[in-house]
Amino acid sequence: MDRQEGYNPDSDRGYGKVEVDVKAYDGRTFKAWVYSARNPAKEGRCSKRYLRVLVAGATEAGLDPTYGDALAQYPPTH
User: Fold this and answer.
1) What CA–CA distance (Å, rounded) separates 13 from 23?
2) Does an H or E element contain 33, and which?
3) DSSP SS3 for 21
4) Are 38 and 12 contacting, i.e. CB atoms less than 8 angstroms apart?
5) Is 44 left (phi over 0), alpha (psi -120 to 50) or beta?
6) Please, what is the Cα angle at 28 between 67 and 6, to 5 degrees?
7) Could you list the mean pLDDT of each consecutive 10-residue stretch along the chain, which spans 78 residues?
8) Any idea what DSSP says for residue 7?
9) Half-sphere exposure of residue 69: CA atoms within 13 angstroms, side-chain side
10) Distances in Å between the alpha carbon of 15 and those of 40, 60, 74?
């Protein structure tokens, strides 16, 4: 996953990675990794292709449909 997301711990560009606590729909709490742009103003928005991947993943994972709908409305870079 790190390679897919362009994570490089020795770089100040691309994505950083942080461990967070998340709460599932059924109330369970667990640890998860979150990738976040290190410099969002410079890095810009997601591509159309990547947004489609995110929407498909949200749908496949059974997430609340409003989340996938919100992702689909996000303005892409191109």
Assistant:
1) 29
2) strand 29-37
3) strand
4) yes
5) left
6) 55
7) 84 89 94 88 79 93 92 84
8) B
9) 3
10) 9, 24, 19
Written as six digits, the tokens of 6 are 């362009």
At 76, list the tokens. Answer: 């892409």
Helices (H), 1-78: 2-5, 40-43, 48-60, 65-73
Beta strands 15-23 and 29-37, pairing class: antiparallel
In sequence order, what are the residues at sequence separation of 6 or more whose Cβ sits closer than 8 angstroms to the Cβ of residue 76?
A: 45, 46, 47, 48, 50, 51
Say whether pTM exceeds 0.70.
no
Residue pair 35/15 in contact by the 8 Å Cβ criterion: yes
Q: What is the pLDDT of residue 28?
A: 96
DSSP 24: -
